[in-house]
Amino acid sequence: DFMQASWDIEEVQAKGIQHLASFVKVKSAFPCLLKCTEVITLAMRTHMDSPELQAEGCTLLLEILSQALEQGLVMSLDERVASCLLHTVRKHWENEEFLSLLCTALMMVSASEVAAENLRRVGIIPDLLSILRRFLHNDKICLSCCAALWGLAVSENNAELEGAVAVTSAVLQRHLQNGAVAESACSALWALSLQGCLTDSDHEPTAALLLDALRMNPERAVLVQNGCLALASLVRLSETAALAILLDSKGSGIELIKDEYHLHFDEPGVAGALCLLMNEMAQYDEVLLDMRSQKMEELLCEIKLQFPFS
C-alpha cells in the first residue's frame, strides 16, 4: 500500500523493494511476497532510469520465482506485468549483466501458459531473438532465452518467429559443449520444428547439428529426449532429414541412437523419444532397409521388454 501510494517517488519504491527483499528467507512471508510481483514490476517500469532499483527489483523477482518453482507453483503474470518486463528489456538493451538477470526471470515466467501467452501478446519474441543475436557469446543469456523461446514458440502467428531457427542453431553451434545451453537450444528447435518454422533447406543442417549435440552431451537425458523429438519432427517433414541421420559424416546416426538408449535404458522419456524417431524414419522405404540391416529390430525388442506396459 505504501509503494502504491507513492509511485512517483523513487526512494519510496527502492526502500519498499529492499524491505520486501528482507522477507525472502521467511517461509511464512512467501504467500504475501507472491502477491507483490505486480507492485515490483510496476515500480521498475515507473523508474526505468534507476539502474539500482532495476537490479534490486529483478533480483527480488528472481528470488520469488525460484521459490515458487521449488514449491511447484506456477506464476501467472498478467498482461500489464508482461508489458512492464518487455519495457524493461528494451530500456536496458545495452546492460548485459542486467539482461542476464531479466532473461532468467523471463525463462521462469514462461513456464506458465497464461504468462507465456501474455508475453507473446505484448511482443516479447522478436526482442528475445535480438538479444540472442547480440549476446551469442553469453551462455547464461543464451540458456535463458532459448528456454523462454521453447515455452513461447506455440503461436498461430509464425511471422514473429522469423529468423528463430537461424539464431537458435547459431546458439547450439556456439555452445555445443555446454550441456545446459545445448539442452535449452535443442528444446527450442523442437518447438520451432513443431510450429513449421523450418524450411526445406533447414532440414539437413539442423538434423546434423542435433546429432552433434547428442554426441557431445550423451549423458544429459533431457537433451537426448528433446533432441530425438526434434529429429523425429524433422524426419516427419522430410526424407532428407532421415537420410542425414543415416549418412552423417561424423558416424552412423543409427549407432548413436543405440548408444543413447543403452546409456539411458531406464529412462522411459528417452526410450519413448527414440521409438518415435525410429517410427518416423521407418516411413521411408530406403531408410527402413538400412535400419533393418543395422538390426534396429533387436533394439526395438529390447525396449519392448524393458517397458512392457508402455
UniProtKB/TrEMBL annotation:
<keyword id="KW-0418">Kinase</keyword>
<keyword id="KW-0723">Serine/threonine-protein kinase</keyword>
<dbReference type="InterPro" id="IPR016024">
    <property type="entry name" value="ARM-type_fold"/>
</dbReference>
<keyword id="KW-0067">ATP-binding</keyword>
<keyword id="KW-0808">Transferase</keyword>
<keyword id="KW-0547">Nucleotide-binding</keyword>
<dbReference type="GO" id="GO:0005524">
    <property type="term" value="F:ATP binding"/>
</dbReference>
<dbReference type="InterPro" id="IPR011989">
    <property type="entry name" value="ARM-like"/>
</dbReference>
<protein>
    <recommendedName>
        <fullName>non-specific serine/threonine protein kinase</fullName>
        <ecNumber>2.7.11.1</ecNumber>
    </recommendedName>
</protein>
<dbReference type="GO" id="GO:0004674">
    <property type="term" value="F:protein serine/threonine kinase activity"/>
</dbReference>
